[in-house]
User: Fold these one by one.
Assistant:
Number 1:
Amino acid sequence: ETGVTQSPTHLIKTRGQQVTLRCSSQSGHNTVSWYQQALGQGPQFIFQYYREEENGRGNFPPRFSGLQFPNYSSELNVNALELDDSALYLCASSLDVGGTNEQFFGPGTRLTVL
Amino acid sequence: TQLLEQSPQFLSIQEGENLTVYCNSSSVFSSLQWYRQEPGEGPVLLVTVVTGGEVKKLKRLTFQFGDARKDSSLHITAAQPGDTGLYLCAGAKVGSGNTGKLIFGQGTTLQVKP
């Protein structure tokens, strides 16, 4: 069974640029959630995708957008990067929405905005 | 608004000591998960509790869900240096429109010195 994978592992961008982060869900999981984790903080929910549709969104501006593909992999896109976007971006997959909400996390992408 | 408060935020103890980490909220959760995170890595799921009053044991770790499903605790017996890491609690809220969003506490950084 393959776990959650994310790419790239590290990324450095400058203010105003755009970035795309990628996630492959765990085998058999159809739901992907994205979280932002600032240094020294707990992860903050960005949004969730279930069967290719957005299924809930946290308190993040529209310049944070996403996609889920038929194979349940997912992308997180961030436009017009700001310095405060520097964080660890985590992808988590789960078997389905609801239930116990057990989510399994990837290793994350460390984004640095200069 | 931080819906899940973890305490303490930092804990530095000697090998062999016992410790308890608390996760408190005024909100009711349908389930609560505990994760452990190493620096630069994604959180790893330790346990999920779903029933009020539930107690689960994982080797030297004991997890309890409060009777009202508003709080939880993690107790570690005879801590070892390998227990060092960031411990995160995360809850899924009850109610309509449950999207599977996890609400995280700010984490407890544990250092176990040999």
Note: The mean pLDDT of chain A is 93.
Number 2:
Amino acid sequence: KAGVTQTPRYLIKTRGQQVTLSCSPISGHRSVSWYQQTPGQGLQFLFEYFSETQRNKGNFPGRFSGRQFSNSRSEMNVSTLELGDSALYLCASSLAGVGATEAFFGQGTRLTVV
Amino acid sequence: GENVEQHPSTLSVQEGDSAVIKCTYSDSASNYFPWYKQELGKRPQLIIDIRSNVGEKKDQRIAVTLNKTAKHFSLHITETQPEDSAVYFCAGGAGRRALTFGSGTRLQVQP
């Protein structure tokens, strides 16, 4: 079965612009989480969506937002881009049954802000 | 919320030696502890996980131990090989809360 798919793989944007990243989870998975990965900072949790509702949120400014559609696909949006937003953005999907379960990661979108 | 601390941040071992990575967590409600391996340029992938009703789990050269009382868990890799070189992340989770990851350990296995 197909894995988690993220598009695009690479993006270059200018400061002040906005960007939208997409994540298609594994079929049947209803939970999608987003993480920011920067060198030395590990995996910083952005937010998690389940059944089109944001269920958890990390400590990121309001410029970072997301949504989930009825088919569980999720998008993440970053507005007014800053240089510090340059990072690898990973999404992960999981079954999200009762009790934490394995998260499956996509390949990530590498965002470069210039 | 949950806070997961991981150390060391870097670890260098000789091929054939053992490697140990340690994590602590803060939320006593956490009951699921996976370990992910991320090779250079690739996505993180699960290598082993443990639930709070188990104290130890092994899978060939990899083992994880959990001490619920002390709120810490460890990854043990025996007979390390160059292909074990990667960044390893621990994580803690519970119920419907998203996983909280440690800051990662870069393991370098010297041939």
Note: Chain A has a mean pLDDT of 93.
Number 3:
Amino acid sequence: GENVEQHPSTLSVQEGDSAVIKCTYSDSASNYFPWYKQELGKGPQLIIDIRSNVGEKKDQRIAVTLNKTAKHFSLHITETQPEDSAVYFCAASISQGGSEKLVFGKGTKLTVNP
Amino acid sequence: KAGVTQTPRYLIKTRGQQVTLSCSPISGHRSVSWYQQTPGQGLQFLFEYFSETQRNKGNFPGRFSGRQFSNSRSEMNVSTLELGDSALYLCASSLDPTGIQYFGAGTRLSVL
């Protein structure tokens, strides 16, 4: 069935270091992979996304890579700052009934220590 | 442009009661999806509406239902509440069913 595995579940880094979060998905037809950041008391906020026709996408300190053959994608955050501390979710799209449903990973709690 | 608005933000109910949650999408967005978020299960898809029609449904019992109005606003209803229904209920809107989803802040439901 549809499944997205996300690792690690918790990640602690020092300010200025890089952080990497990895996800694998099961449905080879998935073609859209967004990443969301959720801060305490707020809803998930889209931070970057990638479609299957692209291998890598970068936006300032954030980058996402996609390996369709291996069915995995990763989020890279460079020069981490304390305000990057949050829970990060990956997701993969599943086409169903003419629309796209997002299947989410279980989340990674990132802590950036000053 | 205003974001996705969910009301109420917090709700306390007792077992057996029913509850209705509301979601106003971003202006111009016609698709609304609902998710249940719990610490153990993460974000789970409930259903999606587009043009007042349910296009997609997740694996939840029939006690969970929803609807969408002509102005794209959506409501979800949970009947005969159970303790396990305690969760953060999130609504996301998009321009259309394949568009980028933007989330509201959620409604935190506690069932006592």
Note: Residues 91 and 104 of chain A are 4 Å apart (CA to CA).
